[in-house]
Design brief:
Helices cover about 35% and strands about 25% of the residues. The chain contains 9 helices and 14 strands. The protein has a 5-stranded parallel beta sheet with strand order 4-1-12-13-14, with helices on both faces. It has a 4-stranded antiparallel beta sheet with strand order 8-9-11-10. A 3-stranded antiparallel beta sheet has the order 5-6-7, covered by helices on one side. Helix 1 runs parallel beside helix 9. The protein starts with a strand and ends with a helix. InterPro entries: HAD-like_sf, HAD_sf, TPP-like.
Amino acid sequence: MPALVASDLDRTLIYSSAALALTMPDARAPRLLCVEVHESKPLSYMTETAAQLLTDLGDAAVFVPTTTRTIKQYLRINLPGPAPAYAICANGGHLLVDGVSDPDWHAEVTARLADQCAPLDEVQEHLLRAADPVWVRKHRVADDLFAYLVVERELLDEDWVKELAVWAENRGWTVSLQGRKIYAVPKPLTKSAAMREVARRTGADLTLAAGDSLLDTDLLLAADQGWRPGHGELADAGFTAPSIRVLPDRGVLAGERILRELLGAVQGA
């Protein structure tokens, strides 16, 4: 039986220049590989060592990129190693099979959302009305599944985010602040449900996961074993559980450490 590795991408395996956290002297900084270009500019990186570890992991396990990104945003990432047969996008709203969204899975998810939480239009209208234009730069809807704001983080009123979280909770939604983005995501829209579906299809008898944000909580808890880095929402909250390995590493070197430990767990299984 294969092992399945479902890992978040941004700030878990890949990092923007602002999130690299290269605190060592310049001469000792790791060599970096650009894995995403957007509008003709390099956007996301991993270390060259991490790239090799990911290649080895893709050969040894069913590696499933698992992201809150839309399909379009995910497809511009050029990860090293074998092309993943499965990928989870839009926080579980889309299950990609060889790069194409599975229509049956998407239909199942949208039916669950319609039945279990407030509609997207209501949440989007609240965000447009309540957010302060002083710190909001963009309003976005992702694949007609959830909404997010792009903000100026230094101007953001964090009490507003807490108030939004309470408002959303009462309507069956979750709020997550990641870098310059505030996500509002339906609670039934989960990475873990999509991971379980891939495990069912592949017959995987071991599931491993990694992630750094509130939206990765269910994924980490659903896996047999999970990893989280020393940065991100979960680290800020001190989140842990018996099956989760908490790493002290921060930034792009945390991504390298996560991949090394995932590969070790697969090879030792």
